[in-house]
Amino acid sequence: MQLSKIYILIALLTCTFLQSVAGDITLHKKDATIWLPSQRITGTISGFAAKQLTVHHNKKQFNIDVVNNAFSFTIDAVHENKIWVEDAASGSKSTVLNLTLGYNQLPVVKPVPEVKDNTVALTSVVLNNPDKKALKYFWSAAKGNPQKVVITKANKSTASVQVPAAKGVYYFNLLVVAGADSAIYKTYVTRDKQGVKAFNIDNDAPKWIDDAIIYQITPAYFVKKAGFDAITAKLAEIKALGVNTIYLQPVTKSEKGGQAYDVIDYLTIDERLGNAQQLKKLVNSAKALNLRVLLDLVPNHTSISHPYAIDCIKNGTDSHYFKFYQHTNDGAPYSSFYHTDSNKFVYYFWNGLVNLDYQNPEVQQWMIEICKYWLREFDIDGYRFDAVWGINSRTPKFAHRLRTELKIIKPDVLLLAEDKATDPSVFAKGFDAAYDWTADTAWISQWTWQTHHDNKKSLTIFNLADSTKRAAKLNKAIFHETVLDKPVLRFLENNDLPRFIGSHTLAQTKMAAGLLFAMPGIPMLFNGQEIGRINHPYSGRTIFYADKTIQQLDSVGMIAYYKRLIDLRKQYPALSQSRTNPVQVTEANNVVALHRFTDKQHFIVLLNLSGAANTATINMQNVQMADKPLLATDVLTNTNYKLNKTKSVYELSVPMEGYAVKWLLLTN
């Protein structure tokens, strides 16, 4: 018994001695969820000398060299990874590093249609095959095509199809199989009277946006504390306005809730709004009403309380996520707006919302996987990308990659940039639509009709003191400070602006709305705008109530007015995506006129920027038309005005009430 105790004591002393002489192996990385399989890991040794160490990666192991007490190696991660480094001679061993790959690596394949006469070659272009597996291809025609098609060589990487005579859009699915994994990608061709045209993934915007009327929803305040179900319950009323697209502000988990741009988890629904089943019910209910659904995503920044940012603060440069965030001034456009917090995070205007670093390929992959998730899981119809002007300025090439990876999944997904439509590069980068902001880089988000920034008031061209200056500035805004030939998001209100009607009279509001819905681009209503809500979007006040219809809350008659505007816009093509020219008005310096026209339809839109009655006279010789109309009908009021046509005179004179807007259809 005594002898056994001595042996135990000797063993303990030996172990203690070995531990005292064994040195340290330190890995300069902490446990993390990773977003690229290739991971470089560095480390150092101390307390012993070694020329080589052994790396253990799950059940694999390999040797690495040590130079000046430092080492590095790269692993190709699988889903779950346990990594440690040891020195057999000294018994030194690092702690175990746990890395989890955050997504399932699927082959990324771009289906490319190429048209020759009536034949379409469907070609698969492999963008990424992460495991280098043999790929199998299965082409099929989507359900609902205008006419049945037969695909030749449907199980090959390149197939072909004869497009039938029936006009319309023909969609094709490509199922790509890699071992036990698979992914579906899509493309399309269009047959019209000119022939067959292939979808151009780099340039083609979704055709449906030509007729889009968007309704922006703040889920947290739509009906306060009622979430997704309250929105679902009022979809029919929203649809009745004439809206065909709803846009939900962020539904992802946020720190403080509310408008929810302080994201702390991009892949989880904020439980204050509901759960995944409730969101799916909302999306499916919207689609049953032929309403498309856009989600608001926040790619520029996270909350400082995001777990990745917290890990940075805790572990510094040893945090896997340190390089996920911007820590230095890169001198990019808008860098004059940078601020740096006490933890060396760079941010723009919003303290606590810290910039992500898209120079890091892993950040790009992370955000792309996030976008793919919501697109595939909830079958949404597009994204509004919040503050993407920041990413466009810091990493301008990212948008093209994002576009490609989303449009191979759903070709007609809308990519709406919160960036300047007046900047041509926004569209060149890959976005389908952008905001009606001026080109002034000193004021990033200046709405074209806005004159001054004010946190409480909507200060616009329409409430300038001098009505003559209003007209001059509005003419400049329409024909020199906005874009008329691109998909521009147009609005009177949104989640960042003070309520328009709160700073303008009802008559001014109706006049401005009349102009909004007569402009080319994509008109948008902000929830509550249709009932004349005046509380600032930042106030947190509830917008609607569960026990009252939206109509019951309209005390100013705006619902009927917006319905009228939307119905007429849908009825007359010249009021939506058509050409726009200025029209000179004589003897009325406070009236603005524009000519909206297609080859077969012509409108003169008139606005009296003054509260006093006036008469607008137009020399019709200056209006470019093949035919000379004799009648102008205000379709808003069904009032007719005869044109004065003689040998020496050809003019239109229209009496204008104060703050009147008229949509004059010109006919013979």
From TrEMBL:
<protein>
    <submittedName>
        <fullName>DUF3459 domain-containing protein</fullName>
    </submittedName>
</protein>
<dbReference type="GO" id="GO:0016798">
    <property type="term" value="F:hydrolase activity, acting on glycosyl bonds"/>
</dbReference>
<dbReference type="InterPro" id="IPR013783">
    <property type="entry name" value="Ig-like_fold"/>
</dbReference>
<feature type="domain" description="Glycosyl hydrolase family 13 catalytic">
    <location>
        <begin position="216"/>
        <end position="569"/>
    </location>
</feature>
<dbReference type="Pfam" id="PF00128">
    <property type="entry name" value="Alpha-amylase"/>
</dbReference>
<dbReference type="InterPro" id="IPR013780">
    <property type="entry name" value="Glyco_hydro_b"/>
</dbReference>
<keyword id="KW-0732">Signal</keyword>
<dbReference type="GO" id="GO:0005975">
    <property type="term" value="P:carbohydrate metabolic process"/>
</dbReference>
<feature type="signal peptide">
    <location>
        <begin position="1"/>
        <end position="22"/>
    </location>
</feature>
<dbReference type="InterPro" id="IPR017853">
    <property type="entry name" value="GH"/>
</dbReference>
<dbReference type="InterPro" id="IPR006047">
    <property type="entry name" value="GH13_cat_dom"/>
</dbReference>
